[in-house]
Write a structure and sequence with these properties.
The protein has 312 residues and is mostly helical. It is 72% helix and 0% strand.
Length: 312
């Protein structure tokens, strides 16, 4: 049996207990919240320095979750101390590095480049899951990832594949690739996380990951312009704290725990799907045939990769 298939957390009967047993819904909502994070991260580039954005996002999330996590943290503290190295690596890759590198990349790259690179996220996860845990993709999982990847490209390129020939590489793309590498490592190592309460795991990794950002924050404050406090910047930060940081990571961690990283990976292809849908709803973009084709391919890929026969 795969290592992620541990004894389920007893959440039945608690508020939100039903939701925390629905991995496909959890991962879908995660992609929705992260789609908003990419859009707003691009909007905030040039207004909120990247390390400042990551630090405020995670420190805010930590103080929000701490009152709820405190009893679980006290109970799980011996387990955390016993696995301090693994917990530090998870905090560094999933919290400190991933989002900071992504925000750095968004300072320099175009939205099209960022979305195309994000679409390779499942491939990074599959690679690191095999390298670190020896878990291979099944044929159905590989087919599902490839089909949904085609759907993502259709949406991003607006149905015109020649758009791919106009894309250039810049330093922001390299930062994005580094971010995706750290997320692949984090997703693979989640299979080895200690069997502890999800809220105590989330709060510790967020809190420790925020502390690991402090040296970079000091450097940025000394060398880069300080964030301007405006209503739009405050609204961006509130969204980042509550949805992409706190709720999405709780849902993502739980979704991977329930079905494993390889079956969960294609759900990340919903990020550009939701991004384009948000553009249609709020930016006046017209719904076109390529949207429908891309959405259908992404959905088909997810169904293929997550069906029961795709599980090892």
């Amino acid at each position: 049996m795969a290592r992620w298939a541990r004894k389920p957390i007893d959440v039945a009967g608690r508020a939100g207990g039903w939701l925390l047993e629905q991995p496909y819904l959890l991962l879908t909502l995660t992609s929705l919240f992260w789609a908003g994070s990419i859009v707003l991260g691009r909007f905030a580039s040039g207004q909120i320095p990247p390390v400042t954005l990551a630090f405020i996002r995670w420190s805010g999330a930590f103080f929000v979750v701490l009152p709820f996590a405190w009893p679980h943290l006290k109970r799980d503290w011996p387990l955390i101390r016993r696995h301090w190295l693994l917990m530090t690596v998870l905090s560094l890759t999933g919290i400190s590095a991933y989002n900071t590198l992504a925000y750095w990349g968004l300072q320099y790259t175009e939205a099209l480049n960022a979305l195309l690179l994000q679409s390779t996220n499942p491939l990074h996860i599959a690679f690191w899951t095999f390298l670190l845990n020896g878990v291979r993709l099944t044929r159905a999982q590989a087919a599902g990832i490839l089909v949904s990847l085609v759907g993502v490209i259709v949406i991003i390129c607006r149905g015109d594949p020649t758009v791919l020939t106009t894309i250039g590489i810049n330093q922001g793309d390299l930062w994005m690739i580094a971010a995706l590498t750290t997320n692949g490592i984090y997703s693979a190592l989640l299979q080895r996380r200690p069997a502890m309460h999800p809220v105590s795991f989330l709060s510790f990794t967020i809190g420790w990951g925020t502390c690991l950002l402090l040296p970079l924050l000091v450097w940025e404050l000394a060398t880069v312009s300080v964030m301007q406090v405006t209503s739009s910047n405050v609204a961006v930060l509130v969204y980042m704290i509550l949805f992409p940081a706190l709720i999405a990571y709780l849902f993502y961690n739980r979704g991977l725990e329930l079905i494993g990283p390889n079956r969960a990976a294609p759900f990340l292809h919903l990020i550009p799907v939701f991004g384009s849908a948000l553009a249609i709803l709020f930016l006046g973009e017209v719904l076109s045939l390529y949207h429908a084709v891309g959405y259908a391919l992404v959905l088909a890929g997810i169904i293929t990769a997550t069906r029961r026969s795709a599980e090892r």
